[in-house]
Design brief:
DUF927 domain-containing protein, alpha+beta, Rossmann fold, 3 domains, 5-stranded parallel β-sheet
């Protein structure tokens, strides 16, 4: 593998200089004066600006009115750049809006008083009119009036927090808390958080900022990180460390992605799961939230409007607890950016859109459905060849790694979307991977490719120059994961086939699938199979009896007491099996027909057993 380098010389010095200059500019901005409220500003006396006191907002007002929501709540951006929902129009609320420029608040809506001062010309004490308070009601009317002139504002969908986003022009935008960043050509630009493209970005607690200079793949810390990741004992050493590296990049892309792949690392005690989390967390230092024991509520209360990633270690399967399942459900929703609503103590629903990436690790993962597994790359770790004495000398540089990778993402965003992703989507699609699998594995591979380049991936075993071979390799490597993720209709048939026929007079309890197999292969005819299948309210037909080209057929009614018992504790209870079977591909489930079962005629879904066998493939 090509030797990992780092940025040095004049580029590194220039980056450090630009960081220092930016910090100084921020300090200077905070030190800006707020003149005495009694003094004119640009020739305008206190409270005498055009439109005063509430027809318009004061000139150069540091508080920006955003608008109102459907309930009439007013939202403003405070002087410090933070979003505020005004629930009480009292002085603490107004002071919070204008601080640290309280003098501006008093100048704009002055409350007048008198004060005795010494007049040196008259050589005596005189009474002067001065500003000594705020006309709170006039300020309130001005802000509400301004909010009414603005379009309605929905903080749940229009407010964007920290992390990666994309604007209407397809450009990658990074919100670092104090600044918005984007790359124009190769020039890094920054601006204060504001309303942009119909979305509101506001000042928040700081997270990482992009590296001030462009970073080439040869200079990227991603090469060194990939070298470190390869020292674990992966089940797929040519692929798994690349997927982890890709996740580091997609974690920073966040809300800009169509789909945010999930990583789940598994393995017994001592395989290095926690150490792996430490390495990844170091690469994302300052931009990731890591936890060992958390809940879904704890995550979304922390995430709020951010698109920053989460890492959860020891997400184990525990009897009697649904904590892990609820966390995975949240990750599934965040995969494509779904809305989450939760009730509050005041009976008001809280809604937010989750757009966060997740990295899980556990010895034994909690139970998951196909809807969860299809969004994940499951990575299996084994014991190191020399446990306790691995010889690994991992290099962690949390101060610079994440910032440099972020700059690579910003510079390469167009290439990622217009070249790398479409290329991998074509390669994987030709090998039969589903759209969901491409969104998961293709996104991770494209992100890793962006960071380190094709040559490095070639060196560790991925044939990047041979599209056909690459597609075959990825398809084979991920086939086990993907075959575990059955469609609902397929899972429904499997559940039915694995169920026993309890009431059998010979004392033997065959499975429904076993009887169907004997019928399909011709060892039993429909008459013999029907005697057994009707005991669980199922029917059947010999090959060619339903349609000329159809194989033997199993008839499944829409409702029957025995089927309610079979599916009672599954996802297909209360007749759900009938709806699931309708989702099967044409030819596996034939059009519904009336069938006589146990002397009663009922509508049934008809399963072509030969077509189903061909679909799933023959086993050993």
């Amino acid at each position: 593998m090509a030797k990992a380098q780092t940025q040095t010389g004049s580029k590194a010095l220039r980056a450090a200089f630009l960081d220092g200059k930016r910090a100084k500019d921020e300090a200077d901005a905070l030190a800006a004066l707020d003149p005495d409220p009694n003094l004119p500003r640009d020739g305008i006396n206190p409270g005498m600006w055009e439109g005063a006191p509430f027809d318009t907002m004061p000139p150069d007002c540091p508080v920006k009115v955003v608008g109102r929501d459907s309930d009439g709540n007013v939202y403003c951006i405070s002087t410090t750049g933070n979003l505020r929902k005004i629930e009480r129009w009292d002085m603490p609320a107004l002071a919070d809006l204008f601080a640290p420029k309280i003098n501006t608040l008093m100048w704009a809506w002055p409350g007048w008083g008198k004060k005795d001062v010494w007049d040196p010309e008259q050589e005596k004490m005189v009474t002067k009119k001065i500003v000594n308070r705020v006309e709170r009601d006039k300020c309130m009317m001005a802000i509400i009036n301004e909010a009414a002139r603005k379009p309605d504002f929905d903080p749940n969908t229009q407010h964007r927090g920290r992390g990666g986003w994309v604007d209407s022009h397809g450009r990658f935008v990074w919100h670092s808390g104090g600044w918005l960043w984007l790359v124009d050509g190769k020039r890094l630009e920054q601006a204060r958080p504001a309303q942009h493209d119909g979305f509101l970005y506001t000042k928040q607690a700081p997270t990482i900022e992009p590296w001030a200079e462009p970073v080439t793949s040869e200079e990227s810390p991603a090469r060194r990180i990939l070298e470190d990741l390869r020292t674990w004992n992966w089940q797929r050493p040519y692929l798994d460390p690349v997927l982890v590296l890709g996740w580091i990049a997609t974690a920073l892309m966040g809300g800009a992605l169509k789909a945010r792949p999930i990583i789940f690392a598994t393995g017994g005690a001592g395989v290095g799961k926690s150490r792996l989390q430490e390495v990844v967390k170091s690469a994302l230092h300052g931009a990731v939230t890591a936890s060992v024991n958390t809940t879904a509520a704890g995550i979304y209360q922390r995430a709020k409007t951010d698109s920053l990633p989460f890492m959860i270690d020891e997400l184990e399967s525990k009897p009697g607890s649904t904590r892990a399942e609820s966390v995975i459900e949240l990750a599934r929703v965040a995969y494509t950016g779904g809305d989450i609503s939760r009730g509050g103590q005041d009976h008001e629903a809280t809604t937010f859109t989750a757009r966060n990436s997740f990295f899980f690790s556990a010895i034994i993962p909690p139970p998951m459905g196909a809807q969860d597994k299809t969004r994940m790359a499951m990575l299996n770790l084994s014991q190191l060849d020399r446990p306790g004495k691995s010889g690994r000398d991992l290099v962690l540089k949390p101060e610079t790694d994440g910032r440099m990778i972020l700059r690579q993402i910003m510079d390469g965003w167009k290439e990622f979307n217009e070249v790398l992703m479409p290329d991998l989507a074509t390669i994987l699609g030709e090998r039969g991977l589903s759209a969901r699998a491409i969104d998961t594995f293709g996104t991770l591979l494209a992100a890793a490719r962006l960071l380190v380049g094709d040559d490095v991936l070639e060196e560790i075993g991925l044939p990047m120059a041979d599209a056909t071979h690459l597609g075959e390799l990825i398809a084979e490597a991920t086939s086990a994961d993907r075959t575990e993720n059955l469609d609902h209709w397929h899972k429904c048939i499997d559940t039915l086939f694995q169920s026993q026929i309890d009431a059998w007079r010979d004392g033997v309890k065959p499975t429904i699938g076993g009887v169907c197999e004997l019928l399909r292969t011709g060892e039993w005819n429909a008459k013999g199979a029907r005697e057994r299948l009707e005991l669980v309210s199922l029917g059947c037909f010999d090959r060619g009896k339903v349609e000329p080209n159809a194989g033997a057929v199993l008839a499944v009614p829409a409702s029957a007491p025995q089927l309610h018992r079979i599916f009672g504790d599954t996802d297909f209870h209360k007749g759900g099996w009938y709806t699931a079977l309708k989702q099967a591909p044409k030819g596996i489930v034939l059009p519904a027909r009336k069938v006589k079962i146990n002397g009663s005629t009922t509508h049934c879904m008809l399963i072509d057993l030969d077509a189903f066998e061909k679909h799933v493939g023959a086993g050993l």
